[in-house]
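Appendix B: complex inputs.
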Amino acid sequence: MARPRTFDEGIALDTAMRLFWRKGYEATSTRDLCETLGLDRSSVYNAFNSKHELFKRALTHYIETTTAAATEILDDHTRSPADRIRALFGRIIADEWANRHEDRNQGCLTVNTTVELAGRDPEIAALLDRDLRHRLSALQVVIGAGRAAGDITSRRDPADLARYVNSVIAGIRVAARGGAGRADLEAVAETAMDALTR
Amino acid sequence: MARPRTFDEGIALDTAMRLFWRKGYEATSTRDLCETLGLDRSSVYNAFNSKHELFKRALTHYIETTTAAATEILDDHTRSPADRIRALFGRIIADEWANRHEDRNQGCLTVNTTVELAGRDPEIAALLDRDLRHRLSALQVVIGAGRAAGDITSRRDPADLARYVNSVIAGIRVAARGGAGRADLEAVAETAMDALTR
DNA sequence: ACCGTTCTACACCGCTCGATGCAAAACCTG
DNA sequence: CAGGTTTTGCATCGAGCGGTGTAGAACGGT
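Resulting structure:
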């Protein structure tokens, strides 16, 4: 019926996501994006309407991917609950190294965006907030199970412990983006577990 | 000998710091700065040379202020070492609420800048790295003292524990900027202490 | 083979960016 | 009060920004 696309929208979205992830929203120009995607500006605007909408889709794509990976680990009933939290830390640290760019870790697009945009972009803030609630409730479920199973011995409210784990993850992400070494991040994660299994 | 300034450079620097803190480097234009400072652009450029140099000075000013406040707490020998770490968390959380803007926490300029610029601005990265080392060594000293005094019972390497505390602080800062409530942050801080006093 | 529709390439829009030039104003020194 | 120096106000610069208009190329349906 009409001329088909010469590019895969999903691949373009993933590539755009990685550029936003690395450079941030403001520092990524639409021309940067087009060059990286290998597409003309009119193609990008035709497919994604605006830089802001492209970013929203890229962030959503990141959240979906990250949530899927986290869910796979947190729902793995072959592991004990505490081990699942440990494995989540391990996966996050491994991903930092898998996604390095020019000897530098990228951190996490969610954390980066929270810092850069949450305070002045309500649409983005809403996306981030929804994702935060999902992560907190997923963590809380596992922590609750761990307390029932006895391998998470902290007597604190599981909601608080979930907040704590989530904050430590954010801290690890910031440290990674700040240039911390892998051993440093692993030590932070192991130490963080002590508060759950005390 | 010549016409004197009509403004206080220190106050201008502090005001600029607060604007960068709230909006980030890229999202703050030199025109924003001039309007907020109540100064003409030529005055700002005459005093600070460039946006980038102004930012470096603002960041340095922030680091000095923050370091002074943290040192005061961490060197307070009237408190036990563990209590000093606790007080540091408390101070950080209190400052988040003291510096709120339009019902939103600001986080920490150091964390925000690490996320936004550390990966692509070597000068800024060097400033942040130097500050990070100072903070880690200050924390490590207190943690070492706590272990000697017996109120920090974790057997982990004090350097790792210092990294851990610093990461938790970064995580709290991100959570604050993401809209977490005060009780949430306090729960994270209390939980984090459990890993030191287990 | 042609038509209708969509996509692509390229030029271009108005605007804002960081930064500068210049002349008038304001001060201190002598 | 005149001379020398710096600051200030305003205009302006080239570059890059996000976004658009348009003409023609590339397809699928008939």
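The domain at 59-194 of chain B is CATH 1.10.357.10 (Tetracycline Repressor; domain 2).
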